[in-house]
Specification:
Length: 203
């Protein structure tokens, strides 16, 4: 993953303390059972090298991948440092392994509440995966699944250190080699993007 425009505070993100201005220290990765989730924790070493820290308040990181990162990788990157009160995510596609990893974070108490907005075509494209998601969500009051004619890829994380927004080209499934993302800590952008999960026509 690479930033650009070295010297600009929005892009100069190497060799920084991960705690940053948020004052949140790095947590030890828990012993998860999901191999997929553990694999994403291993990918964080690459994020640590290139990103170095979480964005500070009102700071934006503009990124592009040169490896096959799943957009989900950013979630444990934030969760490793703090718990998440609410997580909102919209995606065109989501994989079974991502669902299981996300639910494990929820069951471990790392992510308290989850709202997923998924393309309604996913119910026809991959009914087996959607049946799994519906079954897991029915057993958990704080996981909500919504459908709409959506192609947006946005993730919102409400935490004690700020309101993080991750948006870009990557789905919550296996992605292409090259993807682009914006990783921000911005209350205004968070509230604006949150409207996607409340003010559109759901199926």
């Amino acid at each position: 993953m690479k930033g650009s425009e070295k010297g600009n505070k929005f892009f100069d993100i190497r060799n920084k303390s991960l705690a940053g201005a948020s004052g949140v220290s790095k947590k030890v990765s828990p012993n998860y059972t999901s191999k997929y989730l553990l694999g994403h924790y291993q990918k964080l070493e690459k994020l640590d090298q290139d990103l170095g820290r979480l964005p500070e308040r009102e700071e934006f990181f503009f990124l592009q991948t040169d490896g096959a990162f799943n957009a989900f990788t950013f979630i444990p990157f934030v969760c490793r440092n703090m718990n998440v009160k609410e997580l909102f995510a919209s995606t065109y596609s989501i994989s079974r392994r991502t669902i299981e990893a996300m639910v494990e974070l929820h069951d471990a108490g790392v992510v308290e509440k989850i709202t997923l907005l998924i393309s309604d075509s996913m119910q026809k494209r991959n009914p087996v995966t959607m049946d799994l998601l519906h079954g897991l969500a029915r057993e958990r009051a704080n996981i909500e699944v919504k459908y709409a004619w959506v192609h947006a890829k946005v993730c919102l994380l409400n935490t004690i250190a700020g309101k993080y927004v991750i948006e870009g080209s990557g789905n919550w499934s296996e992605n292409a080699h090259y993807e682009q993302y914006v990783f921000a800590n911005c209350e205004g952008l968070y509230q604006f993007r949150k409207e996607l999960f409340t003010n559109i026509n759901f199926k």
